[in-house]
Amino acid sequence: MIIAGVDEVGRGPLAGPVVTAAVILPDNYDLPGLTDSKKLTARRRELLSSAIKEQAVAWTLGEATVAEIDTINILQATMLAMQRAVVKLNVTASMVLVDGNRCPDFGIPARAVIGGDGLEPCISAASIIAKVARDQLMKEYALEFPNYGFDRNSGYPTKQHRDALVEFGVTRIHRRSFAPVKALC
């Protein structure tokens, strides 16, 4: 059975896309320390992300844009991004394991695994790749929008980010459907 693990990063931030990853690991992978991305340092995530990409049978990223998030809501945008990641895999999975309590329709069997990013290695791998990719994207946005601290807060509603929204306004990468941003529009 070919199992793809899927996870998302970025449901809670006020800015930026939601990013997902799908990963199919080989039976004989060697990834010491593989676990939920939130339990790892940024440096360890980056090292593991590179190792996962080298060893994976297949891996891809999916994304839903800020406009999609604002149009169809964050949950539906997350499901869409997950579908996009799975469809892009260059190896067809026979089963998909998704971190969380729900799965989108992949057209193949799928199962939601609560806490799966710490339980299923393929989901852990997906969580790491997605986190590293989204963090890098937010660092790039920090260059364009330096007042918001995206390189440090990844778009999450920290005090600095909320204060910057009040002082400098809403940018094109802010989720206008999220209450703290909507209040300023």
Automatic annotation (TrEMBL):
<comment type="similarity">
    <text>Belongs to the RNase HII family.</text>
</comment>
<keyword id="KW-0540">Nuclease</keyword>
<keyword id="KW-0963">Cytoplasm</keyword>
<comment type="function">
    <text>Endonuclease that specifically degrades the RNA of RNA-DNA hybrids.</text>
</comment>
<keyword id="KW-0464">Manganese</keyword>
<dbReference type="InterPro" id="IPR012337">
    <property type="entry name" value="RNaseH-like_sf"/>
</dbReference>
<dbReference type="GO" id="GO:0032299">
    <property type="term" value="C:ribonuclease H2 complex"/>
</dbReference>
<dbReference type="GO" id="GO:0005737">
    <property type="term" value="C:cytoplasm"/>
</dbReference>
<dbReference type="InterPro" id="IPR024567">
    <property type="entry name" value="RNase_HII/HIII_dom"/>
</dbReference>
<dbReference type="GO" id="GO:0004523">
    <property type="term" value="F:RNA-DNA hybrid ribonuclease activity"/>
</dbReference>
<keyword id="KW-0378">Hydrolase</keyword>
<dbReference type="InterPro" id="IPR001352">
    <property type="entry name" value="RNase_HII/HIII"/>
</dbReference>
<keyword id="KW-0479">Metal-binding</keyword>
<dbReference type="GO" id="GO:0043137">
    <property type="term" value="P:DNA replication, removal of RNA primer"/>
</dbReference>
<dbReference type="GO" id="GO:0030145">
    <property type="term" value="F:manganese ion binding"/>
</dbReference>
<dbReference type="InterPro" id="IPR036397">
    <property type="entry name" value="RNaseH_sf"/>
</dbReference>
<feature type="binding site">
    <location>
        <position position="99"/>
    </location>
    <ligand>
        <name>a divalent metal cation</name>
    </ligand>
</feature>
<dbReference type="GO" id="GO:0006298">
    <property type="term" value="P:mismatch repair"/>
</dbReference>
<feature type="binding site">
    <location>
        <position position="8"/>
    </location>
    <ligand>
        <name>a divalent metal cation</name>
    </ligand>
</feature>
<dbReference type="InterPro" id="IPR022898">
    <property type="entry name" value="RNase_HII"/>
</dbReference>
<dbReference type="Pfam" id="PF01351">
    <property type="entry name" value="RNase_HII"/>
</dbReference>
<keyword id="KW-0255">Endonuclease</keyword>
<protein>
    <recommendedName>
        <fullName>Ribonuclease HII</fullName>
        <ecNumber>3.1.26.4</ecNumber>
    </recommendedName>
</protein>
<feature type="domain" description="RNase H type-2">
    <location>
        <begin position="1"/>
        <end position="185"/>
    </location>
</feature>
<dbReference type="GO" id="GO:0003723">
    <property type="term" value="F:RNA binding"/>
</dbReference>
<feature type="binding site">
    <location>
        <position position="7"/>
    </location>
    <ligand>
        <name>a divalent metal cation</name>
    </ligand>
</feature>
